[in-house]
């Protein structure tokens, strides 16, 4: 049932947002050049790697004297992240069955050996475009709090909760809350549990 819900909703959203996808792609091409999409290998269900698709929000490292995220992110990129429009290409990951509309956010492969046993349970479900941690603080949360919320979702997910999270996500996007962590463009890197 969840897979059918994901497939239908992601296809409908791709059709509805098709004009936005084209417009954002053109603007990125003009402002940042190629590539338009940001791709990165992320761990999915059962830690199986997949290629995540997002709209590019930063200059390439070679385009700047400094390679930090703060130096590379553009005004356009900040706006795309604030409105969550950078996430629209991830709907293709949902169509492909690599992601769900709702689930723990797919993080970096390099974090896998840093999780404790409880934190690694976040990979018992498909990663999501949005999730319980995203609607309860997003990047303003500590890593430990994010992972607790992710594992709570793993243990409690159901259709009603997914619909609730989707509606809470819409509210969160309009409020633009929790986009960045204090002192960071998004969030500081996870370096293991304390």
Please summarize the sheet with the most strands: 2 strands, antiparallel
- State the assembly state of the protein chains: single chain
Strand content bin: 5-15%
Q: What percent of the residues sit in helical stretches (DSSP H or I)?
A: 40-55%
* Physical arrangement of strands within the biggest beta sheet: 1-2
Shape: globular
| Helical/strand content category | alpha+beta
Distance between the termini: 38 Å
Contiguous low-pLDDT stretches (5 residues minimum) are: none
**Contiguous helical run count:** 7
Q: How much is the radius of gyration in Å?
A: 16 Å
| Total discrete domains | 1
- SSE string: HHEEHHHEEHH
Mean pLDDT across the residues is 89
Total number of beta strands: 4
Structural description of this entry:
With 194 residues, this protein is of the alpha+beta class. The protein has seven helices and four strands; from the N terminus they run ααββαααββαα. The strands form two sheets. It has a two-stranded antiparallel ribbon. A two-stranded parallel ribbon has the order 3-4. A hairpin with a 5-residue loop joins strand 1 and strand 2. Helix 1 (2-16) crosses helix 2 (18-31). It is globular. The relative contact order is 0.14.
Write the layout of secondary structure elements.
Blueprint: H1 2-16, H2 18-31, E1 37-43, E2 49-55, H3 69-72, H4 75-83, H5 91-95, E3 100-102, E4 128-130, H6 143-156, H7 159-175
Parallel strand pairs: 3-4
Antiparallel strand pairs: 1-2
Helix pairs in contact: 1-2
